[in-house]
Design brief:
16 helices, 394 residues, mainly alpha, two-stranded antiparallel ribbon
């Protein structure tokens, strides 16, 4: 909105005495300036809205009145404070602030619209799930098959939509005039490899589906300790802030020999808005948490990362940058699979971890909640550095 307003004012005053005085409005044409504006707007708005939303959730009794899975399992001597009674659905604040800041500061294009549509759909799914849990007061929520169905529908829609587009990215080889045109779906970029692999439409749509559904659920599984999911989200968002900027800058993309995607630079503004909204939410979600993001926030944020990785032709980089999310999801899959296998074979289910997701395993080992969160931050930072290293190590 600000971009279009500044352009309108400049056009209206072109050739008039005001043209020189209003030249500062050209600053809003720069992605870096609008990204900074989006981050600050989202942060300030989160600080302002936070107490109001928390108070409103308490009045509506949208709180977690049931013990969470870790407390139900018992044995967490390191956990001093119970989560019971803490307002949930705080993801409403993240999504609302993200949507407003994005609308205010971006130059709208197909990529931004696709991201925001997916975020709103997945946030709606998460909201319904959180509300179902509150009504049942048992942590049951929406049946897993319903959640998976909606996530799959979003993934297939995005995959088919992008597949129908013509060549949506191009790889300019440094030192020569050759340009490799590719499709975001049918061609796959692999970390540490220079050129894309052609994988076909069916496999490509499967990769898109896996990126969106997998990322959405992985962030959701990570959301179990105060500040854990949102802190890791901020680190991953910073990685994609850099990747989206480079992917949308033809000169930087050519220098680094990574795919250039026209319009991807506007996703940098979205990432900046996400960072601002995330920092504002962390202010209230750090230990001891005043509010939880719930599925409303975690499903939407995870889905946004998956789609963003696809839109800049780097879906596998998300596996590296979001390494913590991957570990959390894999721990659940391993625990569930091994338990079912051993129960069928031996009559008694056996466990690999003391409890899954992984962060609860370390709680049961006696780590304090703040220790788990901080150490996971450190690991997430290391994964982020490794992801950024793929820009040059190929």
């Amino acid at each position: 909105m600000i971009y279009y307003l500044s352009q309108l004012i400049l056009d209206e005053n072109k050739g008039t005495p005001w043209e020189g005085r209003l030249s500062f409005l050209r600053l809003f044409h720069y992605i870096t300036v609008r990204s900074a504006g989006a981050a600050v707007t989202a942060l300030v708005l989160s600080w302002w809205l936070g107490p109001k939303i928390i108070h409103g959730l308490k009045l509506l009794k949208f709180g977690q009145e049931y013990a969470d899975k870790a407390e139900e399992a018992g044995g967490l001597g390191a956990r001093i404070l119970s989560k019971k009674g803490t307002p949930t659905m705080g993801g409403v604040m993240i999504v609302a602030v993200l949507a407003f800041s994005t609308m205010l500061w971006t130059q709208w294009n197909a990529q931004v619209e696709l991201i925001m549509l997916s975020v709103l759909v997945l946030a709606g799914l998460g909201f319904y799930d959180d509300y179902a849990k509150i009504l049942k007061q048992s942590g049951g929520g929406t049946p897993p098959r319903v959640k998976l169905l909606v996530q799959t529908a979003v993934g297939i829609f995005v995959g088919v939509y992008l597949w129908q587009l013509p060549a949506t990215s191009e790889l300019r080889v440094l030192g020569s005039k050759s340009v490799v045109h590719s499709n975001l779906v049918t061609d796959l970029m692999v970390p540490f490899v220079k050129y894309p692999y052609e994988i076909g439409a069916v496999t490509g749509i499967g990769v898109v589906l896996l990126a969106i559904v997998g990322s959405s659920n992985a962030v959701n599984l990570t959301d179990g300790l105060d500040g854990l999911a949102i802190g890791c989200t901020l680190i991953v968002a910073f990685v994609f802030l850099i990747f989206t900027y480079l992917a949308g800058n033809v000169k930087a993309a050519a220098y680094l020999e990574i795919p250039y995607v026209n319009g991807a630079g506007e996703l940098t503004v979205v990432c900046a808005a996400l960072i601002g909204a995330g920092l504002g939410f962390l202010w209230y979600n750090c230990h001891p948490a005043q509010v939880f993001m719930g599925d409303t926030g975690s499903l939407a944020l995870g889905g946004a990362f998956g789609l963003m990785a696809v839109l800049i032709h780097q879906p596998l980089v998300l596996v590296i940058a979001g390494g913590i999310f991957v570990l959390e999801a894999v721990s659940v899959m391993l625990q569930t699979s091994w338990f079912r296998y051993t129960r069928k074979r031996y009559g008694t289910g056996r466990r690999i971890f003391r409890m899954a997701p992984l962060h609860h395993h370390f709680e049961k080992l006696g780590w304090y909640e703040s220790q788990v969160v901080m150490r996971f931050y450190i690991l997430c930072f290391l994964f982020a550095v490794l992801a950024l290293a793929t820009l040059k190590l190929r």
